[in-house]
Structures are given as C-alpha cells and as structure tokens.
Design goal:
57% of the residues lie in helices and 12% in strands. It is an alpha+beta fold and 202 residues long. It has a four-stranded mixed β-sheet with strand order 3-2-1-4. Strand 2, helix 3 and strand 3 form a beta-alpha-beta unit. It is globular.
Length: 202
C-alpha cells in the first residue's frame, strides 16, 4: 500500500508549484480520507482553483504525469465559482466527505440546509431503486450491484445526518452507531475523529 502521508505531501507541493496562488483548496476523499484504504485503493484528491480554464486542465493532467503512483490518482478538479453553484444536495456529500489538506470548504456550509440533505437522501434512494431494477432485469452484473452497496452507504450517512446532525465517514463507525453493541451509545465526536485522521495523513 502507498505511503499516504508522503503521497499527499508530494501532491500538494506539486499543485502549489504549478498553480501558485491560484489554489483555493486541496482535499482528500475516498477510502484514504475515511481511513479504510486497501492495496487496491485509489488516491481520490480534490483541487479547487480560483477559476478553471481549459488550459488548466491540460496543465493539471501533465503535472499528474510527473507524479509517482500516477495510475492510482483520480478525483476532482474545479473552479471555485463552479463549485459554489453546484446543487446543494451534491454539496452536502461533497463537504462532509472531503478532508481538507489546504484551505477550507466552510464557505459551502451556508448553502447546506436540512432541505438540501433531504434532497440528497431522496435522489440517492431513487437512483439506487432504478439502478437495482435495471440491473436485475437487464444487466445482471455483480460489479453494478457492488457499486449500489456503496451508494446505499452514502444514503444511510445522509439519513443519519438528517436525523442526528452527525456525519460519520467510516463505514465501520457508521455501523457501530446504527447497531450499537449495547443499549448505551457513546456520543460520536466527529471533530476528534477528523482531527486524528488529519494528523495521520499530514
């Protein structure tokens, strides 16, 4: 498995060298961000620039080509304005599933109200329903079914957040909270868990 701490350090330095003061945010998503990475996990990174032009995409692509473990790097690059104009139901998941490496996404919080979370739940559940029916009748594909399990976790995260105000990234933590080992649940402290994970990576 890759050394995530070194990879993130090298990646961040390269992005800052390439785009200098235009970098608004760098973050980490996916299994490495949740502390669930395996040997086959991708490095799911987020880069937000002050604005995004077509030449920036070429520059970013070329920059990625100079990095070790290039084949593992995936993720999201955007301009700040585009991100701020996303559907709020998408911003909800994006905000809570992204670990900040440089900068902050807190500007998004004022756009994420309870209705946005409710829309995220409804859209996610509808997508799972239709994809499940289609797969059962037409595709009969195990890979599609596995991807729907992943989508279901996102919906459960959103439902839990809607009902409790707590967002739990890691599947194991979410399962413990939903199905506690005893009748008494310990309070979940997202800030402490996030900070511990950040220290491990940075």
């Amino acid at each position: 498995m890759i050394d995530i701490k070194t990879c993130i350090k090298v990646f961040t330095e390269k992005v800052e060298q390439t785009f200098t003061d235009r970098v608004w945010f760098i973050g980490l998503q996916g299994s490495y961000g949740r502390g669930e990475a395996t040997e086959t996990s991708d490095l799911d990174v987020v880069v937000i620039l002050d604005e995004l032009r077509i030449n920036d995409l070429k520059t970013y692509r070329d920059m990625l080509g100079t990095l070790p473990n290039r084949e593992l790097i995936c993720g999201f690059i955007s301009g700040k304005a585009e991100l701020l104009n996303w559907q709020t139901s998408d911003l909800f998941q994006f905000y809570y599933d992204t670990m900040p490496i440089k900068g902050s996404l807190d500007l998004l919080l004022k756009k994420i109200d309870k209705q946005a979370v409710k829309r995220a739940i409804r859209i996610g559940a509808c997508n799972i329903y239709h994809a499940s029916v289609h797969n059962f009748v037409h595709e009969k594909n195990d890979d599609i079914l596995r991807s729907l399990y992943k989508s279901a976790v996102f919906v459960i995260q959103a439902v839990w957040f809607y009902e409790t105000g707590k967002y739990i990234k890691a599947k194991a933590e979410l399962q413990k909270e939903i199905n506690p080992p005893s009748a008494v649940c310990r309070p979940y402290n997202r800030t402490q868990v996030e900070e511990r994970r950040r220290r491990e990576i940075l």
